[in-house]
């Protein structure tokens, strides 16, 4: 069993409008845009990162906004709900805030003894706020008070037709089963970061998901550095997984592989961080381009949708 993985690093989803996505995550949810860059493989598409003040691993939600992308079709073989941690007692205020912002499908629930507020993002992606005694320092620069602001990820759920193979993989990655509730199994990384919970939801009769706007593209797990990442990569290769070479994503190094349930996993390093090319006070303000796409700056300035703020 691996010991290098500490929990979530980031979650990357697809969107249909960069400006609408940016407004929702910065204005409505109060996160900080910590990086405005482009998709390395499709530089005419933004890659937007939202998180705490510095984009600490375990806080960062990222998006590829493909203009006018068709909506995804929910189903098995994907991440279902991405959940954020908020202070205990803050859900009534969040419900009022989200309702006032026109957010759809608000639902107050409880799961594994925790109070939750579930809702749809701008492209129908399922999100949740979970009340916890999370001690991480939140970003309050968007105007939300500290007794309400998001701390980072709480968990992510995965919809699967058969949980067996994915559960075995997660156990190999250092997760341990904590509890079962109905058709959902909860796994945690003991001693991990505060974003160390994965829920596996078994839906044997559900159809396969089709990716589109609102779908999670991949989910990334955190390791401290490149040395730990190479140890994880070799262990996955030895177990029979097809793992990519290490890829430099400017703000972290990444490896990718597909799970038995069809979900794309990434293992990302905590280094070098989002302040490697911007001062912390100005993170996410300017368009940053990877060196291989810098020659496209003028053209991309014409193609990319303007984003306020």
How would you briefly describe this protein structure?
The protein has 309 residues and is α+β, with helices and mostly antiparallel strands. The protein is built from five helices and 16 strands. Helices cover 17% and strands 37% of the residues.
DSSP helical segment count: 5
How does the major sheet shape up?
8 strands, mixed
- Strand order within the widest sheet? 2-3-4-1-13-16-15-14
What CATH first level would be assigned?
Alpha Beta
Q: How many β-strand stretches?
A: 16
Distance between the termini: 44 Å
Average of per-residue pLDDT values: 97
CATH architecture field:
Roll
**Secondary-structure element string:** EHEEEEHEEEEHEEEEHEEEH
Keywords: Dioxygenase, Oxidoreductase
GO molecular function, one term: dioxygenase activity
Protein name: Dioxygenase
InterPro entries: Extradiol_RC_dioxygenase (IPR052537), Glyas_Bleomycin-R_OHBP_Dase (IPR029068), Glyas_Fos-R_dOase_dom (IPR004360), VOC_core (IPR037523)
Tell me what you see in this structure:
The model has no long low-confidence stretch (mean pLDDT 97). The termini are far apart. The protein has one domain: 2,3-Dihydroxybiphenyl 1,2-Dioxygenase, domain 1. Strand 7 and strand 8 (126-132) form a beta hairpin. It has helices at residues 18-28, 91-100, 164-172, 226-239, 297-303; strands at 8-15, 32-39, 42-51, 60-65, 78-87, 107-111, 114-120, 126-132, 152-160, 176-181, 184-188, 197-202, 216-223, 247-248, 252-258, 264-272. The strands form two sheets. It has an eight-stranded mixed beta sheet with strand order 2-3-4-1-13-16-15-14. Strands 6-7-8-5-9-12-11-10 form an eight-stranded mixed beta sheet, with helices on one face. The chain is α+β, with helices and mostly antiparallel strands and 309 residues long.
């Amino acid at each position: 069993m691996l010991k290098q993985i500490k929990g979530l690093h980031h979650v990357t989803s697809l969107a249909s409008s960069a400006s609408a996505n940016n407004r929702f995550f910065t204005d409505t949810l109060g996160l900080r845009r910590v990086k405005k860059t482009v998709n390395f493989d499709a530089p005419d598409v933004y890659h937007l990162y939202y998180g705490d003040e510095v984009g600490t691993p375990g806080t960062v939600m990222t998006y590829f906004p493909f203009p006018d992308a068709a909506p995804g079709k929910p189903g098995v073989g994907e991440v279902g709900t991405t959940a954020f941690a908020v202070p205990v007692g803050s859900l009534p205020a969040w419900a009022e805030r989200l309702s006032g912002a026109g957010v759809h499908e608000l639902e107050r629930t409880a799961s594994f003894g925790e109070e939750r507020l579930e809702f749809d993002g701008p492209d129908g992606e399922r999100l949740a706020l979970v009340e916890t005694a999370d001690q991480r320092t939140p970003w309050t620069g968007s105007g939300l008070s500290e007794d309400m602001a998001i701390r980072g990820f709480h968990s992510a759920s995965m919809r699967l037709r058969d949980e067996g193979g994915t559960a075995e993989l997660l156990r190999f990655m250092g997760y341990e089963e904590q509890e079962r509730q109905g058709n959902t199994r909860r796994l945690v990384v003991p001693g991990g970061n505060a974003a160390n919970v994965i829920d596996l939801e078994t839906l044997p009769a559900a159809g396969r998901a089709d990716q589109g706007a609102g779908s999670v593209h991949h989910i990334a797990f955190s390791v401290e550095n490149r040395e730990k990442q190479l140890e994880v990569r070799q262990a996955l290769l030895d177990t029979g997984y097809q793992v990519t070479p290490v890829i430099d994503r400017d703000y972290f190094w990444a490896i990718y592989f597909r799970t038995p349930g069809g979900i794309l996993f990434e293992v990302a390093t905590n280094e070098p961080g989002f302040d490697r090319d911007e001062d912390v006070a100005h993170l996410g303000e300017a368009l940053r381009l990877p060196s291989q796409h810098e020659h496209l700056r003028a053209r991309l300035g014409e193609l990319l949708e303007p984003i306020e703020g």
